[in-house]
Specification:
single chain; 269 residues; alpha/beta; six-stranded mixed beta sheet; globular; disordered N terminus; disordered C terminus
């Protein structure tokens, strides 16, 4: 997903819960991210691995892959992920989902069938066939954000993003941290559909204060580093983690950590 190789754990946990409850129908009550190589968001797809709990006490490992193009070898990749997960979580059942968001029709298989050797299946959600209006009709900010992955059925992308951002602003106008979290998730998911320009334009249209948003990036070439340090200092003052701040400012994490150790080095406005 662009240059967002790794995003904050809090956002990843939220994404896992949103996919589980809104798309998969799993009433997840708790999410614990697994410390594995699968806990990451990379270019062109997302790997989400978490230990989750249901209301009845069931515990299992949930693995979600977001894919935006068809790959013939994808079932083999899913099987490889499964074996890696099983080796690290012996004794717990694993539930795997492929969430396909590509523009082309889904052509990938949902598993492998190797006669006399292996029969393997995972669940598939084809977002291309889901109407974004179905999610927008729900009284759920999580569903609104996930709607950006669905079929717009002829609606302009900016119109859909405008509706989502407007609803989020109205729902969380007095809860800035929560608003920032949802907008960040919207940006992360939109990156898979190359809609970030639409989001930026809607920021301007809705007069959203970008400096308060977690993905805020300065457009000017002069003073970029100094302004990034100023933003980092402000976020540190709010108690944000250095890794999170490094992501949204583009600064190296080591530099953010040095700033945290010497906060007076940067003047706050």
């Amino acid at each position: 997903m662009g240059d967002k190789d790794i995003i904050s754990k809090q956002i990843i946990k939220h994404l896992v819960r949103d996919f589980a409850t809104v798309l998969f129908g799993l009433p997840v009550t708790e999410v614990e991210l697994m410390e594995t190589s699968h806990q990451r968001i990379e270019d062109r797809h997302a790997d989400l691995v978490a230990k989750v709990w249901l209301p009845d006490g069931q515990v299992f490992i949930l693995h979600i892959e977001i894919q935006n193009d068809n790959q013939r070898i994808f079932p083999i990749r899913m099987l490889r992920y499964l074996t890696d997960i099983l080796l690290e979580t012996l004794g717990l059942p694993v539930l795997q989902y492929l969430v396909y968001i590509g523009r082309e029709p889904l052509r990938m298989a949902d598993g492998l069938n190797l006669p006399d050797l292996l029969e393997y299946r995972y669940k598939t959600i084809d977002m291309h066939k889901m109407d974004c209006a179905d999610l927008l009709r729900q009284d759920s900010p999580d569903a609104w954000v996930l709607a950006v992955l669905c079929d717009f059925h002829g609606r302009q992308s900016r119109a859909v993003i405008h509706e989502i951002l407007t609803r989020l602003m109205q729902r969380f106008k007095d809860q800035q941290p929560t608003l920032r979290e949802y907008v960040t998730m919207l940006e992360v998911l939109s990156d898979n559909r190359d809609l970030n320009l639409d989001i930026r334009e809607e920021y301007d249209m809705l007069a959203i204060n970008l400096e308060k948003l977690p993905s805020y990036q300065i457009g000017k070439t002069e003073g970029v580093h100094e302004q990034s340090l100023t933003i980092a200092a402000k976020l540190l003052a709010e108690g944000k983690e250095p890794a999170w701040i490094a992501l949204i400012t583009g600064l190296p994490q080591t530099e953010v950590e040095r700033l945290k150790a010497t906060p007076k080095a940067v003047k706050l406005d």
